[in-house]
Design a protein that fits this description.
Blueprint lengths: L1 H13 L3 H14 L4 H15 L20 H16 L4 H12 L3 H14 L4 H13 L3 H17 L3 H13 L3 H8 L8
């Protein structure tokens, strides 16, 4: 099954053997038909292995993440891009990737969040995620505008919970509180 392949590839990833990981991915692609979920799972796992652990928030505002790319982050991004290419209109895949990347690497999360908004322009959740990503990527003016747009859309749809969430997030964009809230799990963009 594809699950067995994914587990074998993850084993090479955890052993930090990227050449073997890439070779097994190539073989997996030749012998099986990996789906978007397979690529997303592998990309998220490899990115989790490649990124440094987050700094604890209780020691003060967390520092912005490092933007250094490594062979591991590049391979992970290739896999995440394949997942998005296989299902370019799948909001769940795109938002899942963007949400995973938003705190450690908002610069990498942004294209996935932008694609999610494009794929589902009438969904305030996608706009909220993009607003958060823009805020974490120090694009405060754009973030506030996107969160305002999400709040208006949610209000028109009668979704007061999302309206309130977008407005609350809009207040903390551009402050250390946004990253602290996300690190503590207080601002769950999925509701």
């Amino acid at each position: 099954t594809n699950e067995t392949w994914v587990l074998a590839i993850e084993t090479w990833m955890q052993a930090d053997r990227l050449d073997e990981t890439r070779a097994l991915i190539d073989r997996f692609e030749r012998e099986r038909s990996p789906g978007a979920e397979d690529y997303a799972a592998l990309g998220v796992q490899l990115m989790a292995e490649a990124l440094p652990p987050p700094a604890p928030v209780f020691f003060g505002p967390p520092a912005p993440p490092p933007r250094a790319d490594t062979p591991g982050t590049r391979l992970a991004l290739e896999l995440l891009d394949k997942a998005a290419a296989l299902r370019p209109d799948d909001r769940a895949i795109l938002l899942g990737i963007a949400t995973f990347l938003m705190v450690p690497r908002p610069d990498l999360a942004r294209p996935f969040a932008e694609r999610a908004v494009k794929a589902s322009p009438d969904e305030p959740e996608a706009q909220i995620v993009l607003g958060i990503v823009l805020g974490l990527d120090d694009r405060v003016t754009e973030a506030k505008a996107m969160l305002q747009r999400a709040a208006k859309l949610a209000r028109r749809q009668g979704r007061t919970d999302l309206h309130d969430q977008a407005q609350a997030l809009r207040q903390v964009v551009g402050t250390p509180m946004l990253r602290m809230m996300l690190s503590a799990g207080m601002a769950d963009p999925d509701g």
